[in-house]
Amino acid sequence: MTTANQRTLQTPATFIGVGLHSGKTVTLHVRPAPANHGISFVRTDLARPVIIPALSEYVVDTSLATTLGRDGVRVGTVEHLLAALGGLSIDNARIELDGPEVPIMDGSSARFVEGLLEAGLREQDEAKTFLVIRRPVSVVDGDKEATLTPSRSFRIDCTIDFRHPLISDQRVEVEPTRGFARDLSRARTFGFLKDVERLKAAGLGRGGSLENAIVVDEFSILNPEGLRFPDEFVRHKALDALGDMALFGRALVGHLKVVKGGHALHHRLVQKVLADEANYELVRARTREERQALGLPELAPQPLVA
Ligand SMILES: [Zn+2]
After folding, report:
1. Which tens digits make up the pLDDT trace of 187-232?
2. Which terminus has fewer CB within 10 Å in the chain: N or C?
3. pLDDT-based confidence at 178, cuts 50/70/90?
């Protein structure tokens, strides 16, 4: 396939589950949307429908998860669903949900990927718009750092360094739109038992359990099934980064390097890139020949089946 057209779903995909922080059961539908719509969220439990585009300018909170909001209406924990959409190169979808938070499912993007692929992907008539990074942009916060540099494709290079014998330092480098289902989608969110207890005491993390998170105490993993990958922790961090980069609202072409990152740092990086038009270029080029004529990187779209 040499075209790089926009994509949506063939049929709606439905997901039911609890919100990690609210503990409320939420029904969520990902519906097909026309070309150039982008990804948007709509709360169907409110009298007044408010459409919240999945764009960085609508981020209202990054403290525990990424939360979008508009006119006082919020949708929380959007990152794992946005990672699934981004990993499958889906450009257009309207997401309806009847609660304040995207369901956590199994703590990864795996169920979303399964459901979206079951619903089927459909290529649309319009060319995809790529956001191509043209010069390096960095944000730093103490020993944490996130950088985007020009690259021929979208790559994520993620490093974590926890003072914990089971996690310590891990690094992963992936090309998320090629190996997403295999390399990242199944990596679950994780937490430390002492933090989990503190969150629950504060009325947060109400939906959290060993069914939807890896929980680690001082020396061991509490989940009886163990880990899905030896480096599942850093893979989940890369998944989070992918979800947060989806808030560019365009298919990203650049090399993302994150050291000890998180939602707040990812958001600051996206904002900093968008703040200066010299940092990036928006490109629509349908065929390989058109892209080469413009001197663009090789943009390899993912096949329709993961
Ligand atoms: Zn996460």
Report:
1. 999 988 888 888 888 887 888 889 999 999 888 899 999 999 999 9
2. N
3. confident
Query: Phi/psi class of residue 226: alpha, beta or left (left: φ > 0; alpha: ψ in -120 to 50)?
Result: left
Cα(26) to ligand 1 centroid in Å equals: 18
* Dist. CA 80 → ligand 1 center (Å): 6
Whole-number pLDDT of residue 2: 38
Please give the pLDDT value at position 297.
54
Centroid of ligand 1 to alpha carbon of 191 (angstroms): 10
Which position has the higher pLDDT, 148 or 292? Answer: 148
Give the pLDDT band (50/70/90) at residue 298: low
Q: Which two tokens stand for residue 29?
A: 């539908």
Active site residue 80: no
Q: Residue 94 C-alpha to ligand 1 middle, in angstroms?
A: 21
Q: How far is the CA of 91 from the centre of ligand 1 (A)?
A: 21
Inform me whether the pLDDT recorded for 1 exceeds 50.
no
Among 236, 263, 266, 267, which one carries the catalytic annotation? 263
